[in-house]
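Write out the 3D structure for:
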Amino acid sequence: MLEFLTRMKLLVIEDEKKTSALLQDVLQREGYDVECMYDGISGRDCAINGEWEALIVDIMLPKMSGLDVVAELRAAGIKTPVIMLSARGEVEQRIEGLDSGADDYLAKPFATSELTARLRALLRRGAAPLKAKIKMDDLVYDPASREARRAGQRIDLSQRESLLLDCLLSANGNVVSRRDIITCVWEYDFDPGTNLVEVYIRRLREKIDRDHSVSLIHNVRGMGYRMQILP
């Protein structure tokens, strides 16, 4: 159980009352102060008007979907970590949830121990010291703002794409394995057996290397990926 001098506040936006009650009970026993909302509009307003350490948001909500809730929060500049819940666990749905601005995604049914572990990982990440800007060729990445620029042009990255870029750049030209990427970006200690890494590498490469004569992201067959300037 976590112990805090001040209990950390979590907001759960989930319309299934039994699930909400279960999450509230589990998280309160972990040491969090938990409030529940049961529709998208009320949840959005509560998220905007309150101060929360993290949000747990179901996708299928009445009045406003969880995807729209998170997208509106991000558009408003609210960077509170979000774990998204959904009964649909296909890769496409996971990517849709992450692209809306969520930091992590859990498919129902899930073990509450996995939820609390991922929540702790998100909160640790938010408390981690910020690193200095990283530069490679004409690419500059600022971990503090998660902003990337190439040749002076700003590159619009999702949160997961930013974490992936940070992971590759921080390797300083060394190969990063698929498993290490999963651990670094999604903080899983296991391989979920999907093509999530390949999908995100492809999307990041499209944004970083497209329209540039020098490619920075490279596949090392059978080993993983690296960022380097090839002669």
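Helices lie at 17-29, 40-49, 66-75, 91-99, 112-127, 159-170, 178-186, 196-209.
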